[in-house]
Amino acid sequence: MRLKSINISDIKELEFNGRTVKSGIDKRPIEGSLELLKKGLVGDKQADPSVHGGLDKAIYAYTAEHYDYWQEKLGLKKLPYGQFGENFTVESMGDREILIGDIYRVGGALLQVTQPRVPCFKLGIRMNDPMFPAKFMKSGRYGFYLRVLEEGSVKAGDSIELVEKSDSAMSVWEIMQIMHAGSNMNRNEIIKALAIEALSTDWRSEFEHKLSSLS
């Protein structure tokens, strides 16, 4: 596993349905090392902190192998890293293998997986396709958020070392299926998800609400 690219952005204005919205989704690769703090990479910006960034979502990671899928699916020769709004483009970290709660050493930083990524309409703007967020979800290629347990310096090319495998046995892909099960919600699966200590606060609240609706 390796960190292939670090991508950051300033806040930019995007056109959407005849109006202007602000977003930090336009991530672009950077050269050299960058400090990773508890709330994210130095120099990276989010337009709406209520849904992006924060301690539980300091870093969004997307595996490079997903790029191969999307390039073929969309008929494109090459998509630049950062295209999906990720901070870290990583290697060999698929959604079905990475578990919620896994802890990794990346450069001088220590990070923990907290939840999958659910895209908003701004990804549709980024891809010039308002239906793309739905296609993204259907693909099962979500990527995942990480919290920073130890701050440190990171750079493209750093190895990613598994420090502690989560005992949750619930992958990024699996927990997304439980979250979006709709009328097929399973009480035991929700309880299993809630037992994961590393789960983000937002997702914990969502699962608690789902569980109460089944009572």
Task: Give structural notes.
- With 215 residues, the protein is of the alpha+beta class.
- Strand 9 (103-106) and strand 10 form a beta hairpin.
- The protein has a single domain (2-166), classed as Beta Barrel (M1 Pyruvate Kinase, Domain 3), CATH 2.40.33.20.
- Strands 4-1-8-7-11-10-9-13 form an eight-stranded mixed beta sheet. Strands 6-5-12 form a three-stranded antiparallel beta sheet, with no helix packed on it. It has a two-stranded antiparallel sheet with strand order 2-3.
- It has helices spanning 64-74, 121-126, 132-139, 172-179, 187-194, 201-214, and strands at residues 2-8, 12-16, 19-23, 28-29, 33-37, 40-41, 59-63, 88-91, 103-106, 109-116, 144-150, 152-155, 160-164.
